[in-house]
Sequence to fold (124 residues):
Amino acid sequence: MIFRDNLSIYLQIAERICDEILENKFPPGERIPSIREYAALVEVNANTVVRSYEWLQQQEIIFNKRGIGYHVSPEGKYRIKEIRRKRFFSDELPLFFNRLSTLGISVAEIDDQYAEFLANQSNK
Fold:
């Protein structure tokens, strides 16, 4: 795994696991790889993955079945989307609005582009 400099490695690993959950690689109730397995997969120290799993557990995305391993919580996908929506609205959307204002782009133009995007997505 290639890591970015602007975010802690354990959070980047947690984001990757969230992506895998959203892509149904790990469906609700399904066991995810052990800490050691995931550490070997992404080539990091197991303690880093421990931090990732702890964060995911605190967010109620995964849970630990003692002696069996970590599993995706039934509401895991919902929790991921909720967390990402909050982050989008608090962090990304203000930057987006600022860019629109700076470039003089209207909401109507964005609406047209989004409609075109959705039409292209449905054709795939």
Summary: Residues 9-75 form a domain with the Arc Repressor Mutant, subunit A fold (CATH 1.10.10.10).
